[in-house]
């Protein structure tokens, strides 16, 4: 495969979280600041998980 397993996992996990429709739905329920925190935490955790997988598992 061309891509590493960590990059494929990051695409499959982080992609659906930052979907345009999901942002619209989240904005109708939550405040903007909490959505920004949610996306930042999701991005950081996805990065750390996939980095761990690339360095130690694969």
Describe this structure as you would to a colleague.
The chain has 58 residues and is mainly α. The chain has one domain (5-57). The protein is built from 3 helices and no strands. Helix 1 runs antiparallel to helix 3. The mean pLDDT is 93.
- Domains counted in the coordinates: how many? 1
Beta-strand content estimate: under 5%
Poorly predicted residue ranges: none
Distance between the termini: 13 Å
Number of strands: 0
Helix count equals 3
Radius of gyration: 14 Å
Helix-strand category: mainly alpha
Secondary-structure element order, N to C: HHH
Write the layout of secondary structure elements.
Blueprint: H1 5-17, H2 20-29, H3 32-57
Helix pairs in contact: 1-3
């Amino acid at each position: 495969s061309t891509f590493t397993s960590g990059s494929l996992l990051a695409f499959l996990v982080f992609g659906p979280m930052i979907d345009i429709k999901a942002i619209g739905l989240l904005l109708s329920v939550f405040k903007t600041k909490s959505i920004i925190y949610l996306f930042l935490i999701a991005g950081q955790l996805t990065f750390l998980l996939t980095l761990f997988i690339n360095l130690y598992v694969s």
